[in-house]
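Inputs:
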Amino acid sequence: MKKTRLMSLLLAGVMAVSMAACGGQAPVTNNGDSSAAGSSSAAGTESTRPTEPQGQLVIGSTTQMGNDFYDPSFSNNAVNYKTYDLIHGYGTVVSDIDGNYVYDPTVVASHTETENEDGTKTYTVTINDGLVWSDGTPITAKDYVFQLLLESSPEMNGVDGYPSQSGYSLVGYQEFFNGETEYFAGVHLVDEMTYSVTVRAEELPYHYDITYASAMPRPMHVIAPDCDVEDTAEGATITGEFTTDLLLKTINDPTSGYRYNPTVTCGPYLFESFDVASAQCTLVVNPNYAGDYRGVKPVIEKLIIKMVRTDTMINELKSGSVDLLFQCSGADTINGGLDLVDQGLAQDNTFFRNGYGKVQFDCSQFPTDSANVRKAIAYCLDRNEFARQYSGGYAAVVHSYYGLAQWEYQESKDWIDQNLETYEKNLDEAKALLEADGWTLNADGTEYSGTGLRYKEVDGELKPLVIEWANTDGNPVSDLLATMLPEAMTEIGMQLNATTMDFPTLQAAITHTGDKTYNMYNLAVGFALASSPWYYYSTDPVWMQGGYNSNWIADEELEAVAEALKPIPFDDKETWLTAWQNFIAVWNDKMPDIPLYSDEYYDFFSNKLHGWYSTSVWEWSRAVLDAWVDA
Amino acid sequence: MGKGRYLLKRLIYIVFVFFIISILMFWIYKSMPGDPVDIMLGSSKTTMKPDAYQALYEKTKASLGLDQPLPIQYFAWMGNMLTGHFGYSTQYKQEVINVIGAPMFNTVLLNLLTMVVVFVISIPLGIATAVRKNGAFDKSVQVLTIVGYSIPTFIIALLSIFLLAVKFPIFPISGVRSAGSTATGLAAVGDMLWHMALPVLVMSVSGIGGITRYVRAAMIDVLRMDYIKTARAKGLREKTVIYIHAFRNALIPVVTVTTWWVVGLFGGSIVIESVFLWPGLGKMLIDGLLQRDFAVVLTMQMFYVVLSLAGNVIMDVAYTMVDPRVRLDG
């Protein structure tokens, strides 16, 4: 579990919007069970799980690792991100195998939540005795409080601009971060094994409020060896020579800093080395690890993470130079991997991506500020055929703002089939929507003739129905959209102008900081465990300029149904599900994006690996704890 | 004009051109759309409250000096560069000097080995084909060299992987060293050379094709000269005629090529590095451009500018060494 608390709040729940280029659609899949959002393992596992760690697993990643092992605030490289999970451990709140947040019983002995009269809420957490750092030093509540203070402090902010946002939602954060006080009022060291945090009233209620109680230990004796954590009536504080200069030495030194060479950690694996020349990382099992939230300890002795290329990685698996390829997508790769499985040379595990490729509209721009225009474009695209062509059949289509790995989707499959518009290709429907929206004129102002570009009178001026589309180079989704969309759009009287650019330019356009703003983009979205749509569909301009509401959609109905989700208590699944269904139904009607496809991911792995089970919410860095390899 | 005066003149020219190019480069890169601070902060934008993000954004921008007018940014950058401070990489969140070493080592190592292979093979081959001009051997080599430098590198790379790593798994498909290797000393060197085999092979194919033809053409021109006939008429051994009298005089065009190869030692190939997953300067430059990491990009570009300008001078000096008739003057 990540340390960031602010992130836990806000963002924890937030979805990591990854802007890559994609596309996709239809519920078509080559997998026999198209509804399976979980996973299925192919190979037999006759091997018995060893009791002691043994062997090594070489993990192939299509992303090159970087030399940075502190947390995502320094480097959010996808593979590094998973390495943090493996190296750093004992977060008090973690996600379980189903993607739900729970207190980790291996770490937490007890916890209490107290609602205060002033609207704030205090979480008190007692840590289990017996947890130790990899160097044998006992882990106490001081290490947890140290993390909260360290990663909210102005001193840490001086280390390469670290955000220092861990305690953002807590009482007294701003004063502490600004350096106005040395005491963090919302954080207390209650006793040697207990800490408490108090959340500001304005941050409540919050559906994922359990994440406010989250903290993870940082080794104070390594990062600030001559400092200490003390508790006072005004809050907890770090005493001693705690300065940015100290942190620049203990955290940021290129060779010995904790960021690059984390020698004392407490996760399931220990950092052994990172070979800069080959961008290869080696981790070894932590003999002092007490287990994850289920008490499971890893039994694979060594993990090696190396980079592979998409087009040759199946060959690497076959040759034995890698043992595991995770989250493979695309027909060529999957078919190649399945061939190995058929030959008995490898095993597989499959699950659906918790996100989708999409056409994203800018709803602040004419004419995509009209839901009718957006829906008309959706009706121009055969999404099933698109997904089939793009993924080779290894994808499904979604119809609203949800991921196939979300439990809400699992519970709502029938409801979705009955209640959501699927936007099957229908040009007559598209034309009707445009007519209803006022696109009824020719260029000369006469009634639309039925062919050519449609016009609409806006404030006394005739405006053409032209859609400006920004896309990135070398993107198969863009290529496929360029093939499938223009003809149908022309037929309904719409013109599509495509502009190709690099990603930073595209980003600037999306955030309205570039030279030109466009009507639509093709991107992708991934849902975090704590999906928080109330931020993404807020009509407050702050959330638009802040990059959350990247559709720039100011729709009060959509905002209201999204906002209704936020205060629902985490345990009230029934109310949440009803509100969630209401939200995706409204979203489906507003169509701020056109969901294109949700990939069917495959893990391929060698026959020496056993007990492998991973999903979109239980990724490889978690799955590796249950798995084992032959000696 | 003496050699010293000539070199001084060239040095002044280099300094002048260096600054002109640096201004142009700086202006071009800074004009590119895309916000390096936004890219640097990455997912923080959607993991922080907007007001907190904005504060962090402004602070980061100021700490990088990007809130200053362009001329001030230029002088700050140039001043730092000239004192050995190449700036802060927004992509790696480290000083450029700390991140550029490993890929540079990889690139130089690969290029150096390739250069050795190319020259060891192509110079004797070029001479041999020139001496046996229009013979069966010469014609065969001509065809092969044309094929060698005509086929795009990425096709040769993919073919070589298919043949020598997949079909006949002699070499590894990619990487710099074996995963989990704990080899040291000679064993580690051997492992690395094993991984370098395919990329060096691929890079050498086009290099051998081009340089063989270059040497052959130069040798054929020289072998037509009267002094070669004289040497032969004097009864000198054929080897002496070829390697002492002819090749020495064919060296001038070869020196040109060699100089650019030496300069090119620091130039990474995005194709080779991507296909063989060899982390080098080529990929670093592309990544830097895509991430608007101007400190990295500008450092590398200016390094290449200096190399190119210095290469020209080195080439001129080398000419005088291989051919005393060449004089350095204005």
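The two ends of chain B are 7 Å apart (CA to CA). Flag for discussion at group meeting.
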